[in-house]
Structure formats: C-alpha cells, structure tokens
Amino acid sequence: MTVTTPPALRRRGRDLRYLAVEAASWPASMALLVASVLVLPLAVLAGGRTGGSPTLDLVHRLALRAHDAAGRLAADRRTTELPKEAAASLGAPQTRRNLGWLVLHATVVFGLSLLLVALSVAPVLYSLVAPWWWLFPDDAPMSLAFEITSWRRAGATVALGLLYGALAWVLVPWTSRRIAWGTLGILEPPRSEVLAQRVDALSVSRAAALDAHAAELRRIERELHDGAQNRLVSVVMMLGMARRALESGATNALPLLERAQDAAGDALSGLRTAVHDIYPPVLDELGLGDAASSLTSRSTIPCTLDVRGLRRAPAAVESAAYFVLAEALTNAMKHSGASRIDVSLRTEQSVIEQGVTEGAAEQVLVVEVRDDGHGGAVDHGTGSGLAGIRRRAAAFEGDLQLISPAGGPTMVRVELPCGF
Amino acid sequence: MRILIAEDDALLRAGLTLLAESEGFTVVEAVDNADDLLTAYDAHREEGVDGAVLDVRMPPTFTNEGLRAALELRERQPGFPVLVLSAHVEDQYAGRLLSGGSGGVGYLLKDRVGDVGQFVDALRRVLDGGTAMDPEVIAQLLSRRSGNDPIRSLTPREREVLSLVAEGRSNADISRELVLSDTGVSKHIGNIFSKLGLSTSDSGHRRVLATLTYLRS
Lengths: 420, 217
Prior knowledge:
The complex is a heterodimer. By secondary structure, chain A is an alpha+beta fold. Chain A has 11 helices and 7 strands.
C-alpha cells in the first residue's frame, strides 16, 4: 500500500460518494424497470408512440442524472449532452439506450456499488463495534463476519475489516470509473450519431445564416428605399418645382427650396443610419465593449453595462452581438415599461463540448439584457424584434433564452459561439 | 382633371399633391396604401375620376401592391388611366400594365418628377388615354434585342426616334426634343416602321402600342 496522501483520499471519497449515490438510486431504477416492463407492451400496441409516457419520462430523467454524475466523475470521457426531453417514440435511439442503461443500473451497477460501499464501510464498522463483543450474552454472541466470543476473534474481525478496506482502497477508483465509463458509453449516442446530429445542426444554422443574410439585405434595401431614396426624390421634385416657379417668373420659390433642403438633410441622416446599420463603424474603432456603451448611453431608460468578463471575438460575432443588444434594448425601451435595464456582455466557456471538437472548450459570447418592466414578452415568430434576435443567433448556432413572466422582470439571454 | 394619388411616403405624397395642384390638377384624394386607393376610387367614381398616380411599392408587403391596384382599377374600368411610379423599373411590370391592350398607361421612374415639365406632360398624356413609358424601360427592351434583329439596321438617329415613340411622345414633342422638323420626324418614323415591318398607317396611341408590342416580342 502506498503512502496515504490527501488527494488520493479525496479522490476515493468522491468515487465512493458516486457509488453510494448509484446504489441509493437503485429503488428508483428497479421500480422504473418494473414499470417499463409493464408499460412497454402497451406502447408497442400504440404504434411505438410514447409521447408523454410518464414512465419513460422518468427513465430519461433518471438517466440524465446518472449521465451527469458519471460525466462529473469521468470528465475526460464525456462528449455529448443528452437531450433535455425524452424522445417521443419507442424506436428512438435514446429511448433504447435509456432502457438498456436502466437494466444494467438496476442489476450490475447496483450490485457492484453496494458491494464496494460495504467493503469501504467494513473497517470502520468492525473497528468500532468489535471491541464491545463482551457486552453480548454468551448464548447470543455478537456476529459480524463471524461470531465473536473472545478478544482474539475480535482482533481477527478488525483485521478482516482492514483487509476489506484495503480491497476497497484499490477497487473503488477502478470500479467507479468503469461504471461511469459504462454509463456514458451506454447513454451517449455513438460518435457517428453525434456527427450526424452535428451535420444536421450545421445545416440548420447554415440555412439560418442564409436567411439572416437575405433578411439583412432586404432590411438594408428597405431602409435605403424608404429613407434616402424617397428623400432624394422629394429633393429633386421640390427643386424641379422651384425651378419651374422661377422660370415662370414667380417669386414664391423660397419655401420650395427650403423644403428641398430639409429633404436633402433627411436623406443624409437616413444614409448615415443605413451605413451605421450595415456595420457600425464604432465596432471597428473601439471594439464591442465601447460600442455597447455607446448603445446603452443612448437608452431612454437608465441602463447599466457590465463588460468585465468580455474578451475580443471574431468581427462577425461581435457585430451580431452588437445588433442583438441594440434590438434587445429597443424592445425593452418600446415595450417593457421598465425603470432600469441591466446589460451584461461576457465571454463564457461553453458547457457543452461537441463531440467533434472533443476537449477543445468552446467560448461563447453572452449578451444578457434584464429589465424590471412588466414582462409578458412573447416570441411571436416572424416580425417581432425577438424574431430578429433569434435569426441572428441561429445564424451563429447561438441560442436565445427569454424569461419574461407576466409582471416581469424580463431577461433576454443570447449565446453566440465564438468558434462557430 | 381629377386624380387620385397613392404614395406611402408622407413627404412624397404631399409633394406630389402640391405639384399636381400647382399644375392645375384636382387631387380628389391622396392615400398611403393600395386598399385605400380602391376605396377612394369607389367613393369618388360617381363624381368622376380621371386617373390615378400611384407608387408600385406600398404597405403591407412593400412589393408590388401599387401595380396590382393599377391592374385592379383597369379591371373595374377598362382604360382607366394609371401612372405608376417606381424607384426602379422592370420591363416585366411594363408588360403587365400594357397587357390589356388599351392606353392610358404610364410607368415612370420616381426620379422623373424632378423634371416637372416633362412629368406633367406625361401625366396629361396618360390621362388623355396616351402612354408614358420610362426611357429606362425602353432602354432595357432595346438592349436585349439579339444579333440579327432588324433594329440593328436602324441608324442611331432612328433609334433615338424609336425610343421616343415608344415612350409615348407625340411627333411635335419628338421634333422639339431632337431639334428636327416635323416632316423630318415623320420621315424617320416612316423609315423605322418599314424597316421593322410595322404598319405605317397606325398613328397616335396605336402607334405607341404597336412599337412597344414589337419591342417586347
């Protein structure tokens, strides 16, 4: 036996805790196994649809917990996040994986975990209990591993407990790791499936990127058409009328010229807005943090900005974050009735490491806008400001989270992967 | 002359109204979308409406509501004069406006309002049952004629005359524009029509339609 170092002990403590929790969750997995056996034939009769089956939902939740625990123990082996909701069909690969895991968990995992927990507890239990053998009456002696009727036998019991402990010392890390690996291996989709899902996700995000791009072009075209172009037509028209008035010797051309000048001024400011909306010059010059601060300082509602955890991201991501923030602020100002807005921009490590970029932790740019308004914001699909945000996020495989209960407060959180 | 105006941009709408009224037209109603235009037309039909000036792109979809409203008006009253304005012109749209075969059609770039004199002429022409095609449309049509087209055999001067004819201009107009005598213009037109194999007996609006039909074929 090697010298006991605290890290080794800590590690074993963690492993043992893992095994204890797995063993303790046995009643749940056994009950669900029985329930599944009863329910599945019905599901098959119903054509394999299991949507809303509480049993399979619970199995999935139990599996999620086990996957989580195993993932924490064997962080180096973890690759994929499981879906949050149970699959709606019996034939779904995840449903089958869940059931396979359930069988294993209710039997082998439980047996091994229980055995190892018992082995680990034995030295403590035996050492504490055996010295009191003499308190027991002669006709009903204390019985641990065997009956204890003398100090010699008590010593042997303690020695046996220590032997168990030594065995546990070696076996606990080994076994717990294998159980964790097995759990991950059974529950997680095989690599090919992960890749297929990734391809699907990429296809969706590419389509969203194209959509976002087309929508952007339309928006810019609309802005130029309704703004500068129409204003310039007005300018030309007013000048034409002024000229005609002057040619016919009239003296009332001045108001027309004034209107032409006003319209030309409008056209200029329209162009400035359009140019700014295509790519805000401040982003290039100052970076996202300062660009965001110029946005928040223009807010009509008192607005705080926290960019302490913000790091530079690719220009496209920063630009998307900028517009997301601009749109979220506009929404809050227009609809929330809030008296304050808190904005946070920061760079986070992504929780999920996709199977393909195994090990390489991905950075996400998080835009978070909270207001203390009356809430009740809903994502109406197309047209709303939220839809615009969603579109921009989707283009980067990002995610929009909206929490806005009636009565408030509202929180909009957008995650944009930096290495999309 | 009593006209309806449909233009969604408030400033432009006011400008067009001002321009039309200062040139002696009566603006019966100026609205900002196609549906209101049709409603206004129905409301004022009894008292008489001589035509409509409308923007192609209006709410709600900002695509071609104006064009559809123009066709709808001409459906309700064949030959109802419509002058369609647009930020950019497409000969496809011109074709749809002309497809009824009757006159009283105008299709101009919005920019043309800058030349008030010509714009008002075009509006009068349309209200009189004539045609006003934007030079840009004619240029598009001419540019897509292929290699051995008879149009290739026209002299540059004849092509200029042809363009103006297709725009819907009168002989007097053309002679003024190109600084030619009236007889000179008539001679050019005679030459052009015989080169293209068109009937030289057509005159006025029929001549314009024949030319446009030829160019679009």
